[in-house]
Amino acid sequence: MPTALNSRIIGRDLSSYIKGEDDETGFRFLGNVQYRLEYARLGYEHIVERNAITREVCAELGVRLIDLFALFDTENLDDFREHFIDVLHLRPRSYPLLVEIVYEHIGELLE
Fold first, then answer.
1. Does 5 fall in a domain?
2. How far apart are CA 60 and CA 110, in angstroms?
3. What is the distance between the alpha carbons of residues 48 and 1, in angstroms, rounded to a whole number?
């Protein structure tokens, strides 16, 4: 599961980044859920833990994985909101990039 959150920002108060504009320019915490630093930290830890479990299970079963968490990692971006309208959901303008990534990796998976 991808997320806008990353280890570099997870301990910071992100409330100044919450903006109620549209899906192209705005950023919400998570839908209508009110932002709280503790919610962000817990959510990020949950996502990281579940992604690690998924990677481990896929490796054990020999199942190939398209790791959207890694591919949409925000750690080194100037703005962690670039592809996300909230901490979990991609912006509509990022869908073509998602499709490109998936098709690229499907080709690799079929090899």
1. no
2. 19
3. 9
The residue type found at 20 is: G
- pLDDT tens profile 65-93: 889 999 999 999 999 999 999 999 999 99
Q: List the structure tokens of 95.
A: 């869908």
What is the rounded end-to-end Cα distance, in angstroms, of the chain?
24
pTM: 0.86
Residue 9 belongs to a domain: no
Closest CA to 3 of 57, 66, 68: 68
Angle in degrees, CA 58, 61, 62, rounded to 5: 80
Distance CA 36, CA 91 (A): 22
Domain count, the chain: 1
In a domain, 6, yes or no: no
